[in-house]
Structures are given as C-alpha cells and as structure tokens.
Design goal:
It is a single chain. By secondary structure, the chain is an alpha/beta fold. The protein has one domain. The longest helix has 13 residues.
C-alpha cells in the first residue's frame, strides 16, 4: 500500500487516495474545500518545541529525525494512522513546508514503512 507525502499547496488528484493533513497548524491560504482532506491528524505532527527548534534548517535534519522518531514512539496518533493505512489503498500525507525532502511528513512516511 503506497504512502506518500505531498505539499498541500499542490492540487488534489484522484491518485492521492485518502488525504491526511499531518501539520499541527492549518496551512495559510488553503480552504478546507481545496484541501480535499479525508482528515486532519494534527496530533501526529512534531511537538511545537521540536518544530520550533528544527526551524527547517538542513543541518538539523538528522537530529530532528531522531527526536521526531522518539516522539512518535509514544504518540497514540501513530496507531490511528497505521489503521488508516490498512483501511485505504493509498494514503497521501499532506504538509505545508517548502522543502519536499526536509520535512516531518517525509520522516513520517519512512517511519510508517
């Protein structure tokens, strides 16, 4: 079952399958209709403290991944997301970050695999 990450600012496609926003904050300039979400799972996002520390600085990404993995180990939202992956053929994790490789959604995709 494919799990992919995609910027929420990209247009929704039929191939996205079940779309889950995994940001803690609602993305600016995106209407609920345009988002075309199955659900918003904000509790799966990194803690505010971790997100602010990371600041999307590439030199902190390796350490961010370790810290985020540690948060995910005790996060009950992970079970819900795993259940969704069993219920849907394709899951697209949506995020608002600018960098398509250095963001928490990519870390989450790897964690779930």
């Amino acid at each position: 079952m494919p799990i992919v990450a995609k910027r929420i600012y990209e247009p929704a496609k039929n191939t996205d399958g079940y779309r889950v926003l995994v940001d803690r904050l609602w993305p600016r300039g995106v209407s609920h209709q345009k988002a075309a979400l199955g659900e918003w799972l904000k509790d799966i996002a990194p803690s505010t403290e971790l997100r602010e520390w990371f600041g999307h600085k590439p030199e902190r990404f390796a350490e961010f991944k370790k810290r985020y993995h540690a948060e995910l180990l005790n996060n009950p939202a992970v079970k819900h997301l795993r259940d969704l992956t069993r219920q849907h053929k394709t899951i697209t994790l949506l995020y608002a970050a600018h960098d398509p490789k250095i963001n928490h959604a990519e870390v989450l995709v790897d964690y779930l695999r």
